[in-house]
Design a protein that fits this description.
Length: 356
């Protein structure tokens, strides 16, 4: 039986107090200074992951750096050193493959250097994250009565490894596509690639606000620290699929715009009687897709490097989708800010948006 590990990190400073309660009243700067000098550590032992074909177990390992630190408050070299350190803990625990969670998959060259320094397989989980984000967007659009072939789809963060593959997939279906990112040169490269593959020329912009007013579907997948989607600019009846962690969409959007459907991207149901022994805000048996990719690969015994770098292939997305289905992983319905979104709730949103 192949085993897996998954590297977590505190998204914000307040997450530190969930593990170290004595820091609860500390200022953010103190909490961040505290974790910066902490070593990585095992967080939990995960059991019960079982499909019809195989079983696996694994571990959560914490890399004690916050999102702000990983995105620039510490150097890339320092961040990679600590991620590799966490990877060595995974090796000692007996893992055959380790997944890089949240922003540990973004630092530096998106896992390539980390993989070179470890003796076990490494994945960012981005291939299955792409697959589930597109699945969730398609299903949410259908529930809201949106035909993708007639829709304007906006991908925010389109130059990232997840965003550009989401864009390439949606280009095959959408009537109109807009790509949003800060680096216009990289956007131009992706636009040319999409043109060659799909025969369409997406619009490109660095101004996220300018793209939202006519968007029917927004897929948000940046690596920003702050929320980037302004709720005032969204079209009534729009679907927003937020794949980013930290989130690109504030919970205030749901309060200010009850006529818009916001769903969390990349949440899946794990087969078996899984016990994570760690609370990340989901009901039992649910995980992020990036975690699930690591489990799928362990179940399949496919424990080499996977989903590394910033150019995820469509072939890998198709392969991990097939393997996940084989082992019984599936989209976990709709969730928004860690809460289930029912069909009744969607009907209310459609009514408020004036849709029939």
């Amino acid at each position: 039986m192949a085993k897996f590990a998954f590297i977590l990190h505190p998204i914000v400073a307040d997450d530190i107090a969930r593990k170290f309660k004595f820091t609860k009243r500390w200022p953010e700067s103190w909490k961040e200074k505290f974790v910066r000098f902490m070593p990585p550590l095992k967080v939990s032992h995960i059991t019960g992951v079982r499909s019809e074909h195989a079983a696996t177990e694994g571990y959560f390992v914490a890399c004690p750096l916050t999102s702000r630190q990983l995105l620039g408050e510490v150097t890339a070299d320092e961040a990679i050193k600590k991620i590799v350190w966490a990877g060595h803990i995974a090796e000692r625990l007996g893992a055959d493959i380790v997944g890089l969670g949240a922003l540990t998959s973004v630092v530096g060259d998106a896992g390539i250097t980390v993989a070179e320094k470890l003796k076990i397989g490494v994945t960012t989980g981005n291939s299955y994250t792409v697959a589930t984000a597109v699945m969730a967007s398609r299903l949410a659009a259908k529930k809201m009565g949106i035909e993708i072939s007639e829709a304007h789809v906006v991908v925010v963060g389109a130059t990232g490894s997840i965003g550009q593959v989401c864009a390439r997939l949606m280009a095959k279906e959408a009537r109109q596509l807009t790509l949003v990112a800060r680096n216009l040169d990289r956007l131009a490269q992706i636009t040319r690639r999409i043109g060659d593959e799909s025969g369409i020329t997406p619009a490109v912009t660095a101004d996220v606000n300018a793209s939202l007013a006519t968007a029917d579907i927004v897929i948000a997948v940046t690596s920003a620290l702050d929320c980037v989607v302004d709720p005032r600019l969204l079209k009534p009846g729009a679907v927003v699929c937020d794949v980013a962690r930290p989130r690109d969409v504030s919970e205030e959007v749901a309060k200010l715009r009850p006529d818009v459907l916001i769903v969390d991207g990349g949440v899946v149901e794990v087969p078996g009687d899984v016990n994570f022994r760690f609370n990340f805000g989901f009901p039992p048996r649910m995980s992020y897709a990036c975690m699930a990719e690591t489990m799928v690969l362990a179940l399949e015994g496919k424990v080499g490097d996977y989903s590394l770098g910033r150019d995820i292939s469509l072939e890998q997305v198709e392969e991990i989708t097939r393997l996940a289905a084989k082992h019984g992983f599936k989209l976990a319905g709709f969730r928004s800010f860690e809460r289930a979104v029912t069909d009744e709730k969607i009907a209310e949103i459609r009514t408020r948006a004036g849709l029939r």
